[in-house]
Amino acid sequence: MTATGPAAALPVVAVVGPTGSGKSELALQLAERFGGEAVNSDSMQFYRGMDIGTAKLPVAERRGIRHHLMDFLTVREDTTAAQFQAMARAAIADIRSRGKLPILVGGSGLYVRAALDVLEFPGTDASIRGRLEAELDDGGLAPLVARLALVDPISAARVSDAKRVIRALEVHELTGRPFSSFMPERNYVQPTVQIGLNGDRGGLHERLAARVHGMVASGLQDEVERLIAQGLREGRTARKALGYQQFLRVIDGDSTISAATEQTITATRQFARRQLTWFRADPRVRWLDWSQRDLVAAAAELVGRVHGGPDA
């Protein structure tokens, strides 16, 4: 459905930034103030049962605010940015058609761009991807990165994790074009305001360490054990999620709870750094300090400028 009238004037709000920066809470505050609904763009929160390790906001803590695109995959399943693009835009259109403010919230950078920007996605080829994944298992990531640097140096400089390196190589083989050519100028599909949360790096590190320790205390290992029975080991993406891969090794007897906890903290800090690098590259993001006293008011002012509502 295409919104018309007042609903058509509603912007999309995106709350972005590194993990642990308080995106979920700010999204709730904005939804309460403007009459909004949340659209999840954290790719690990797509999975049913992956709750503790993804810091998924429990239903009881969502304050009655509807959240879209959570818990729609099993741990055996996967989705692509192109598929997410279609689902996110359908959810946004539905929210706007009911006169509500859509609030995209999450730190999966490519998925955020997929929802917000004029962005073309090339197709996929399971045989090419399977061969590249086999090469990764046999020879590690370095040879694939070296190959990518030859055919697509721009992507090679931007990507570092195995999934995205394989995707870039798959696209080049499939289309003959570098993956970077599918990431054009940053143009929103519709009026949008992106609010980024950032702050003291040391403070973020402390937050992330405390959060991981809290996850472990809340039963992360038990959650992983439950998900094994649901096919976690067979899932191509879910089993590699932060915390889950580390505690799979604990369950296998190859690590300890203490070691897995510290490894998860380190990996989470590295992930947060990559998220910041991604979002800082977008000049349209309006950054706020998560520790500022007037955070909600400052964010509401940014929304109000585009919304044209009472806070404009």
From TrEMBL:
Location of region: Interaction with substrate tRNA: 42-45
Any Pfam family the entry gives: IPPT
One GO process term, biological-process aspect: tRNA modification
Residues where substrate binds: T19, G20, S21, G22, K23, S24
Superkingdom of origin organism: Bacteria
EC number: 2.5.1.75
Record site: Interaction with substrate tRNA: S108, R129
Enzyme class of the recorded protein, top EC level: transferase
Residue positions binding ATP: G17, P18, T19, G20, S21, G22, K23, S24
Alphabetically ordered keywords of this record: ATP-binding, Magnesium, Nucleotide-binding, Transferase, tRNA processing
Chemical reaction(s) catalysed: adenosine(37) in tRNA + dimethylallyl diphosphate = N(6)-dimethylallyladenosine(37) in tRNA + diphosphate
Required co-factors: Mg(2+)
Any GO molecular function: ATP binding
Assembly and oligomerization: Monomer.
PANTHER family (alphabetical): TRNA DIMETHYLALLYLTRANSFERASE
Function summary: Catalyzes the transfer of a dimethylallyl group onto the adenine at position 37 in tRNAs that read codons beginning with uridine, leading to the formation of N6-(dimethylallyl)adenosine (i(6)A).
Family: Belongs to the IPP transferase family.
Name of protein: tRNA dimethylallyltransferase
Species in which this protein is naturally found: Arthrobacter livingstonensis
Gene name as annotated: miaA
